[in-house]
Amino acid sequence: MKAILLAAGFGSRLRPLTNNIPKCLVPIHGKPLLEIWLERLAAVGISSCLVNTHYLSDQVVDFIASSPFCKYVTLVYEPTLLGTAGTLNANLDFLQGEDGWLIHADNYCLADFKEFLNVHQHRPKECLMTVMAFRTLTPQSCGILELNDQGIVVGFHEKVSNPPGNLASGAVYLLSSEFLNNYPSQMGTMKDFSTEVIPTQIGKIFCYETQNVFIDVGTPESYQQANRVRNYDLRSQVS
Q: Fewer CB within 10 Å, N side or C side of the chain?
């Protein structure tokens, strides 16, 4: 199984920290955020990853080149940002028609990846993907999920003023081969995965709620929060 990590954004809300460093390389407990993702994915056997780049891309190239991940990370530079859905469409061949991960890599995520994989593998047969979710204290700033009794997504509300609950999409997905095989014909022209693709899949998305730390490192306040929480223990991922 392979993973696509979306890491090309400007990190505008995180300025001035991101004036001179791409958001995917901001340090959490002294370690670049992208490094945390790659370490934790490798620990559960997901070692072949594609990372898209754009803003301050040379720094990402240099980081990967000098890291232990250089042999199994594919970097793809986007001269013009394709959008989250566009990047997936442009790199479907990388996933080789198998189930794969699509990850917004601007989150500090300590979820149990083994459990997430297991939930995806045992999802209801009508579901074509599994989304990771978390509870948020600021639901109006997130994409909020509504579930039925089986844990299937039956509603999605992106950054609305009065959302129905606080179960937020973490924008970390496990996508089935069936979904990926149909993607070009059905969603190949779409740009944003959350606002364009997800609404077309209501009733076909299973939800996994993590009880572990999940923080969107999007603002100076949330970045500080991420650096206050307990650091992860990589050994827990391989036990």
A: C
Per residue in 35-82, pLDDT tens?
A: 999 999 999 999 799 999 999 999 999 999 999 999 999 999 999 999
**H/E element holding 185?**
helix 177-187
Fold of the CATH domain 2-127+171-231: Spore Coat Polysaccharide Biosynthesis Protein SpsA; Chain A (3.90.550)
Residue pair 21/117 in contact (Cβ under 8 Å)? The answer is: no
116-161 per-position pLDDT tens digit: 999 999 999 999 999 999 999 999 989 999 999 999 999 999 999 9
Length of the chain: 239
Which sequence spans correspond to the domains of the chain? 2-127+171-231
CB atoms within 10 A of CB 177: 14
- Neighbouring CB atoms inside 10 A of 188's CB total 14
